[in-house]
Amino acid sequence: MRIPIILASASPRRRDLLAELRVPFIVSPSEVDETPRRGELPADLVRRLARSKAMRTFAFQRASIVLAADTVVALEDVVFGKPVDREDGRSMLQRLAGREHRVLTGFCVMAPGGEMVDEVVETLVRFRKLDDAEIDAYLDSGEPFDKACAYAIQGGAGTFVVSIEGSYSNVVGLPQDEVAAVLGRFISLPARDGAAPT
Fold first, then answer.
1. Under a CB-based contact definition with an 8 Å cutoff, are residues 180 and 193 in contact?
2. CA dist 113 to 34, 57, 58, 76, Å?
3. Nearest Cα to 25, choosing from 109, 146, 148, 105?
4. Residue 79 CA neighbour count, 13 Å, CB half
5. Which long-range contacts (CB under 8 A, 24 or more apart) does 138-143 make?
6. Looking at the DSSP assignment, which residues form a beta bridge with residue 57?
7. pLDDT attached to residue 1
8. What is the pLDDT of residues 88-112, one digit of tens each?
9. Nearest-angstrom CA–CA distance, 189 and 191
10. Per-residue pLDDT tens for 41-80?
11. What domains appear along the chain, each with residue ranges and CATH number?
């Protein structure tokens, strides 16, 4: 009998990325306080939050495999979350314009018996220079307001990107290859895109 997989996230982007792995799962979001601790580095933050979310859901779903994740954007170790309003979103995009930033996703998988595996995946993204009119047009689209650092690479902000080094799906919200490798320790995954099953 297949072990149930639970995605402990309300993110539609993570749901879509996990669905591409062609494994059945259910969504059961886990809410935790995402406030960074004093002096906490971005990688430590996303790892801690992913673990906390996974453990909170696993406490009620011990016969399941629980997957939780957290994504942040960091510019010189300054963490950017979701914008609180339009001006905050504008400020974030202005700071990213013409510069390279890091997108970090921490993910945690917990399996029946309590085994925990967690990883942090980092992708480097560089934006071209942006003018105020471009930023305002993007803000007008409404797309930035539920995204880390006010942009979605898979949406309109894809035109801002001049280079990406690392996992594209990580920037969207879930590093598919790395997640598949961990899930493959516990269950058999269908082959995708010509790859051998894990």
1. no
2. 27, 14, 10, 39
3. 109
4. 20
5. 138/93, 139/86, 139/89, 139/90, 139/93
6. none
7. 52
8. 999 999 999 999 999 999 999 999 9
9. 6
10. 999 999 999 999 999 999 999 999 999 999 999 998 889 8
11. 5-183 (3.90.950.10)
Q: Is 16 known to be catalytic?
A: no
Q: So what's the pLDDT on residue 125?
A: 97
pTM metric for this prediction? 0.90
d(CA 103, CA 153): 11
CA atoms within 13 A on the CB side of 128: 9
Partner residues linked to 164 by β-bridges: 125
DSSP 197: P
From 33, 70, 131, 177, the catalytic residue:
70
State the pLDDT confidence band at 9, using cuts at 50, 70 and 90. very high
What is d(CA 180, CA 105) in angstroms, rounded to the nearest whole number?
14
User: What phi, psi does 97 have (nearest 5°)?
Assistant: -55, 130
pLDDT average, residue stretch 174-183: 97
